[in-house]
Amino acid sequence: MALKPVAVQGDASASTGNGLVGAAKKGKWTAGEVNETSYSQLTAGGVEVIYEAECTFTFLGDSDPPNGVVSDVNDSSTVTLSASDTVAQGGLNHVLRDGDEEEDAYGNKVSVSASAALQSG
Which long-range contacts (CB under 8 A, 24 or more apart) does 91-94 make? Predict the structure, then answer.
């Protein structure tokens, strides 16, 4: 198994999808803040290693129903990226690694791009 760099605080990011919600004929997703959860006892380069990243995306759009009355369509989706079973120092066995990602049905995604010297298998 190839070793990958582990993710530290600041390595997770969010990207918005293009999927439409319900009766919406057009609209746009917006990403909120990415919240990372870390291990205080495990660091790489002095920065805490993360094991979870979460972002809430909001959708604002409108419908175009047959009766011609346009209505707002609003929704939200929370994407949580949780570490799979990995092995790291200190007996910790769940860390996010470079390339990990999670996506919802609308294409909203939380992903990790990591380059820490600490690696995990």
Answer: 92/39, 92/41, 92/42, 92/49, 92/51, 94/51
Residues in the chain, how many? 121
| Alpha carbon 84 to chain centroid, angstroms | 14
Provide the token pair at 37: 């959860």
Q: For the segment 26-68, what is each residue's pLDDT rounded down to a tens digit?
A: 999 999 999 999 998 888 889 999 999 999 999 999 987 766 6
How many CA atoms lie less than 13 Å away from 96 in the CB half-sphere? 31
Task: Tell me the pTM.
Answer: 0.88
Separate counts of helices (H) and strands (E) for the chain? 0, 9
Rounded Cα–Cα distance for residues 37 and 9 (Å): 8
